[in-house]
Amino acid sequence: MASGSPGNASITRIFVLVSFLVTIAFCAARVTLEKERPHDIDPPSVKSDHRDAAIDINAMMDNWVRVRRRMTIGCERPGVRLDLVLKGPACHPQEGSERIRLSEGGHVLFVKHLNDLQGHVAIHDSQTALKYVRLLTSSETWFIWNEGPCALEVLERNEARNIPRFGLHEEITLEEWGDVREGIMGVLSAHTFHAAGFSHPVVTRTDHGFTIVRWLYVEPERDRGLVEKVKESVGEDGSYSRTILIQKKPALPSGVEFYIARFA
Predict the structure, then answer these.
(1) Span 142-171, pLDDT tens digits
(2) CB-based contact 237:213 (threshold 8 Å)
(3) Half-sphere exposure (CA, 13 Å, Cβ side) for 115?
(4) Cα–Cα 20 to 30 A to 201, which of 27, 56, 240, 262?
(5) Residue 227's CB: how many other CB atoms inside 10 A?
(6) Could you give the CA distance from residue 99 to residue 111 in angstroms, rounded to a whole number?
(7) pTM here?
(8) What is the pLDDT of residue 20?
(9) In the beta sheet, which residues pair with residue 202?
(10) Which letter, b or e, does each residue of 70-107 get, where b requires 16 or more Cβ atoms within 10 Å of its Cβ?
(11) How far apart are CA 222 and CA 52, in angstroms?
(12) CA distances from 59 to 40, 52, 62, 89, 93 (A)
């Protein structure tokens, strides 16, 4: 027992010394951290700064723009440029981020309503007026607008091949949609088109522009559609308004129904 006591005492002394040194080191580190901490910034402000940084990043993402294609209506005033762009964070499908951007000089506008083009276009003939309103129902642009329910023009298949593409060169045309399934994207066979009481657009000159009467397929709710005969008024400067003349449920033959090919 006596021979082991000095060793045990030495171990105890070493343990006490190490503990003492560790305690001193810990206290010194704590004092250093307290001196370096910026006392004039309290935790709520730090949290606020982090939140503001997150908002700034979100704002940057919302303003991020990439040009997909140059587009044209054919009636833009000199100096006006239209582009189909992707705006904001990337999403799937990408059509959910597509917008029409108007540029004129140093002015940039993301077009949400057809009336946003007023003053930036000049419409002097019936063909251009019809092309202008079809910007709302093109297979490449129908989903971009905030004009109300989703809308497509009711078209005879032969007429579908004449729908303007606005320089966008879509992957599948309205005519090809009609070959996939009758009624899809508003395209019907000639027999069904006339048997169901539809007619081709009629454009009339007025004192200050044009009126266009045509049939639309609209969906106030997804997959629950109506057909509308509408009168659209277009000014020479691009002003636009729409009046519903007839609204009813589609009366199509058995096995035929309208269908909008959505992206998701």
Answers:
(1) 888 866 678 999 999 888 877 888 877 655
(2) no
(3) 7
(4) 262
(5) 21
(6) 7
(7) 0.71
(8) 52
(9) 213
(10) ebebebbeeebebbbbbbeeeeeeeeebbbbbbebeee
(11) 38
(12) 29, 10, 5, 10, 21
Q: Quick one: pLDDT at residue 202?
A: 98
Q: Is residue 142 within 8 Å of 136, Cβ to Cβ?
A: yes
Which amino acid, one-letter code, is at 55?
I
Q: What is the pLDDT of residues 169-210, one digit of tens each?
A: 655 555 555 456 789 889 999 999 999 999 999 999 999 999
Beta-carbon contacts of 256 under 8 Å, excluding residues fewer than 6 positions away, are 182, 183, 188, 192
Q: Are 203 and 129 in contact (CB under 8 A)?
A: yes
Q: Hey, what are 92's tokens?
A: 């799937």
Encoded tokens for 40: 């004039």
The three-state (H, E, C) secondary structure of the chain, written as one string: CCCCHHHHHHHHHHHHHHHHHHHHHHHHHHHHHHHHCCCCCCHHHHHHHHHHHHHHHHHHHHCCEEEEEEECCCCECCCEEEEEEEECCCCCCHHHHEEEEEEECCEEEEECCHHHHCCCECCCCHHHHHHHHHHHCCCCCCCCCCCCCEEEECEEHHHHCCCCCCCCCCCCCHHHHHHHCCCECCEECHHHHHHCCCCCCEEEECCCEEEEEEEEEEEEECCEEEEEEEEEEEECCCCEEEEEEEEECCCCCCCCCCECCCCC
